[in-house]
Amino acid sequence: MSICAFIFDLDGVLTDTAEYHYQAWAALAKELDVAFDRQDNEQLKGVDRMGSLQFILDKGGLQLTASQKHAFADKKNRHYQQLIAHMSEADLFDGVHDLFAQLKQAGIAIGLASASKNAGMVISRLGISQDFDYVADAAKITQGKPHPEIFLTVAQALGAEPAQCVGVEDSLAGLQSIIDAGMQSIGIGDAKVLEQAQWIYPHIKDLQLATVLKQAAN
Ligand code: BG6
Ligand code: MG
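That is the input. Now the predicted structure with magnesium ion docked in place:
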């Protein structure tokens, strides 16, 4: 099946914001006296804000009221927004401009499927907002990753059948979302973590578009 859309995750795929999410969650976990390391964080990548907070609370055996939860989620978000305040076009990962240019040249649509409510601000700071044919609104997604809703929403908006789409993710939850959406999958990061992806590259700049398109068509 020939590919007509590439649907990207943002945090950890196009820029290093996955690290800032980790730092902000780690600070909150410390405040709550819950042990939380990078291995725990792998489970949180791609997971929405309240789901991530719940993971930390469950790990610490903590029970909070809904308003306490919202207060802690807001606190994490304020910290995260401080961490990304300095971001600029220089923070776009190497290789993204080239990849987008190649996709445009090939007539392949570009979509964004980020669970982050800060995604619009981040892509604007990175100077790539205009490159996307469609950007999912995380606030309108009712079932977060690993549910396929967000990838399917973007595919539908782009007028593409799932099988004609390639999803690109750095997270386990996001990869599951792509697979359950019936799309072809690229993992960016650790091959041991993302072993279920059809193609795995350590970094977005390593992605071999010609190879993916050729193999995807078979
Ligand atoms: C995902 C990140 O893209 O967005 C998660 O991988 C993050 O780490 C989630 O929790 C939600 O982000 P935000 O900005 O809405 O809190
Ligand atoms: Mg990610």
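The pocket of 6-O-phosphono-beta-D-glucopyranose (ligand 1) is lined by residues 10-11, 18, 21, 44-49, 52, 77, 114-118, 138, 171 (CB under 6 Å).
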